Amino acid sequence: MNYLKYIFQAEPDLQEILMALLADWPFDTFEESPAALHAFVPQKDHSEDLQVGVQELAAQFEVTYRVEEIPYQNWNAVWESNFQPIRIDDFCAIRADFHPVQKGVKYELLINPRMAFGTGHHATTYMMMQLMSALNFSGSKVFDFGCGSGILAILAAQMGAVEVQAVDIEEPSYENTIDNARLNGVENQVQTFLGDLSVITAQGFDIILANIHRSVILAALPALHQKLNNRGTLLISGILLADRDLVLTAANENGFSTQEVLQKGDWIAAKLLKEVPGA
Asked: 20 to 30 Å CA-CA from 131: which of 31, 48, 124, 207?
């Protein structure tokens, strides 16, 4: 499958805003650099409406861009060559299988990202893992909504979750999560699905992880509340700081209380608790 790469000439602060807005279209992968944002869209999902929308967005923020075609295999090689190990204090480290072992951490994850978003480098994934570090996953049932590379699902399994269900609407993410779960030896704990929230019929989750887009989280809050056990925990990210009040207010209106909020750059992540009237 070929991809188109949109290259926006923009400073880092503007890149964060563009990335959040572009996620409303079928862009499924983003790569940030000091002077440009690379946004990738499957060629099969490229449309005239998307082109017009990008033109209007570029005009609104006064940025220039160009488009390149990226063959699937070439993209894999480029992504891997740019993937560097990352460490979150002494809690965990993320590396590809061609990097040396990271010492002095409690958990080490092997992630070969391929076409999937979510390697720990982006602020949203980083903060999700920080929030996870304070939770007890032992014996828990976990749902990873929008699993990307599978990094959060795999970490949950390493931390003691006995069952992890992971879903993503993008086939490369679905495939990558399966591969990475196998690479980390947790394929028996992580069950991966291709599709949207409707393909997950299970309920009674102790913890739900949702590192996804604001609009998706807002639409899914009632269903996520229903899928959680009483007093279950929902971790959310993929939310711009400017949307903090909007999202947290909606969460409260859908039966969640805010327990903790982290901020990294222009992004936030939050720990929410399911509230049950009379419980």
From this structure: 31
